[in-house]
Amino acid sequence: MPLTAESVSAAFDRWIWIPEDATVIETDEYLLVRFPDWFFRPAELLRLRPAAGRDLLALLEEILEQARAIGTPRLSAWVRLDAPVGLEAALVARGGICEETVDAFALDLSGGVPDLNPAGGAELRWMSDLSTARDEHRVEVEVFGGSMPPEDRLARDAETEARDHREGRGGRIVAYLDGEPVGCGGIVIAGQDARLWGGAVVERARGRGIYRAVLAARLAYAVEQGAAMALVKGRVDTSGPILRRAGFEVFGQERCYLLPLESQE
Fold first, then answer.
1. Is the distance from CB of 158 to CB of 129 less than 8 angstroms?
2. What are phi and psi of 85, to 5 degrees?
3. Domains 5-103+254-259 and 111-227 are alike in CATH topology
4. CATH architecture entry for 111-227
5. Which runs of E-coded beta strand occur in 141-202?
6. Distance, CA of 144 to chain centre
7. Share of the chain above pLDDT 90, in %
8. Average pLDDT, the chain
9. Partner of 131 at 20 to 30 A CA spacing, among 50, 180, 231, 260?
10. Cβ(101)–Cβ(80) below 8 Å
11. CATH architecture designation of domain 5-103+254-259
């Protein structure tokens, strides 16, 4: 079945991930998440659906008060594909600064895995033990920021990811060059959707096909599990061009705004 703007938007709307140890504030109008301290974004506004007639700036002030109450130093707010009209302008009016723009990509998997010409020298390992969990997080921290989780959390992540991979629910891949971890990427199988996330390559290993290798392995896994569509949010200047060449289509953009939490008095 050909991809449509409606089906892709609905699939992205279903895609929200919250770790089990996060602090969650959810109402009929918004979803606010305070992540564990090692995450590179401490808190995010993941969904906003104002009630009819609701003033967006007033709602944002309520959300910022909640963010202060859960102890976050800053708040990132996503303008998603399904964002209400006027949200971006309201974020800018509140002092929001755009910190990231991503294209929302989708790929029809009915034709199988595209030929990505991945790096021949890369070794790929699915995260399955404490060692690969450490390596995966080291790559994430180097590329995205944040800090390393505690060892017990890494061990728990490794056990969960290994089980999910065996049972067809997804997993995380670590790419190595000469035994050194240089890339990573995750996948979640949700019904017929394959959600690709966290694709990263350290700067010193870029331009050598590592991202393509990790992408190809995740897409092959998705096809094996019977997924019909692959979804990924690609940074405009880095992964975006690779994804376009791989056959992914762009169905819009999402932007993340950093909101100041200081008083506006």
1. yes
2. -60, 135
3. yes
4. 3-Layer(aba) Sandwich (3.40)
5. 170-177, 180-190, 193-201
6. 11
7. 89
8. 94
9. 231
10. no
11. 3-Layer(aba) Sandwich (3.40)
